Automatic annotation (TrEMBL):
Involved in mRNA degradation. Catalyzes the phosphorolysis of single-stranded polyribonucleotides processively in the 3'- to 5'-direction. Its EC number is 2.7.7.8. Its main location: cytoplasm. This is Polyribonucleotide nucleotidyltransferase. It comes from Catenibacillus scindens. It is found in: Cytoplasm. Mg(2+) binds at residues 495, 501.
Amino acid sequence: MTKGVIQKKEFKTFSMDLAGRTLTVEIGRVAAQANGAAFMHYGDTVVLSTATASEKPRDGIDFFPLSVEYEEKMYAVGKIPGGFNKREGKASENAILTSRVIDRPMRPLFPKDYRNDVTLNNLVMCVDQDCSPELTAMLGSAIATAISDIPFDGPCAMTQMGLVGGELVYNPTAAQKAASDLALTVASTREKVIMIEAGANEVPEDKMIEAIFAAHEMNQKIISFIDTIVAECGKPKHSYTSCAVPEELMDAIKEIVPPQAMEEAVFTDEKQVREENISQIKDMLAEKFADNEEWLALLDDAVYQYQKKTVRKMILKDHKRPDGREINEIRPLSAEIDILPRTHGSGMFTRGQTQICTVTTLAPLSDAQRLDGLDEAETAKRYMHHYNFPSYSVGETKPSRGPGRREIGHGALAERALIPVLPSVEEFPYAIRTVSETFESNGSTSQASICASTLSLMSAGVPIKKQVAGISCGLVTGDTDDDYLVLTDIQGLEDFFGDMDFKVAGTHDGITAIQMDIKIHGLTRQIIEEAIARAKEAREFIINEVLTPVIAQPRPEVGPYAPKIVQIQIDPSKIGDVVGQKGKVINQIIEETNVKIDIEDDGSVSICGVSRPDIDKAVEIIEMIVNEFEEGRIYQGKVVSIKDFGAFIEFAPGKDGMVHISKLTNHRVNKVEDVLHLGDVVRAKCMGKDKMGRVSFSIKDAQD
């Protein structure tokens, strides 16, 4: 006889009101073997967030191996995955972007010398469209890590902000998101802002700053809530093996390569020259330390740290940048369009050693990207921006494995920046794809891709409302909050060794996108305000002095190689006549005119083709199908059938009329074949309806 013990599992529950909805966290209910686990409920949204770490550091690496996963399960919204394989496949673009948003604020809060593998996993199990699963996962990761035994200088919290009717909204619902001019996510520690991600409809700088710090205040309430959870459920943090570079190694390097020599090595505006200088220093040190295997293993990291301290000291104390620029100076700029003769549009933007070429492709709306995800409100994407970063752009060689998370993130950022200025579907009934190819990279390629895309869209004849430009500002900080320096247009070295990459894109009138990454424990309001103001000055300079002289307005029409699209409206009840049985009629029109036709349920018809005469012919055929024959009007058609009493003429697929033998010519005709043959194209005049209600035609009256 089977025996067992039935035991009720004990767990702890914590709740708070968050923007008018209840956030509930269950600790100890599930996933007990993870280092930390939080079963999150926000409204009816349910996410399981876990944090796990390896027992030992990973050998042979000089970085913190953090992995963040956001798993979307289609059962969360009551769907079975589409396609042949009815199982979730690779992560969606939204899942990748959400993982990045969780990673960016949390990574700086782990110890810098920590090399244990850490995985933050977020399993989306149920979705309430008014309670963001992305936000729930962000909070869940922060809570799971805070209560775990993994070293972590948290907690941190995240809040989403909307702007509806000029009023700020915390954690907006689905309806509020649809009406919002702002999609902002802000992460904070107890004292400072640690991450900003935003898309906006030209929101002014002062309103953006107000929204950022409204979110920061909300984050403090969430952190207080997390503190209560940690106080009851938190584990002691475990000890770990430090992978910091030994001080004696750093001292030995400085004896061989004094600070002045390192300054001379990095002080150049040529990335290749600087890399060669550092390579020579490494070779010299490797020769000196040939007998010390332990130091040789740490040499790359040690030289990196030495470069970092040198560059930071030069910038912060001496106000000297590696390439000799002023603190607020942008690298040399250039722009051009139409470098590819047969694409629909192309633009190239160069900033120092960063160079991007963006190519625009136009297509009918049926080519828009279909989305199969957890967001039921968004099922298709009309504008697509893709970003590529090949190894040759940084002088390296490695095989292409498709876009990684960084490429997807940069593409999404540029897409977000440009969407507010795109024309509506009614104004411009096209699907639009822009592809940014990185030719050369030395810092802030994502913002260069925004500038290049503006050029490319305008050259393609896309009537964008305004020009958009982007710039990235950097930061070097000292020992106090007041000891810092904001840098305009950071290059790669300043990004690697600095504390911040603050990307801001927008028009003359406001911000359209922000992405902020930092490597320190947060920014003060003073730093954020200065960075946003500096970015505004820079983007206005780029628009006025670089983009506008090349192309001031979008071209008035699309180019000769781009498809032309004409939209007409028909009676929805006539859609079946245009389509025909099994698509016979519409396929015949497409074959005859070499166009593409898309019909919506409301009767809107888009005819797309490269040749304007072909489009006009297709429009004429469709209008003939859906409209009644007009008495007295002359039509052109093809003879498709000959009878003893006359001939049948097809004026449009599925729509024909009869010409009686007496109406063929002005003289007597004995046989129809004496005058007409199958396939003849003739003109015939509509004579109206006969006594039996049939529409008749006359060829002889069309010749008058």
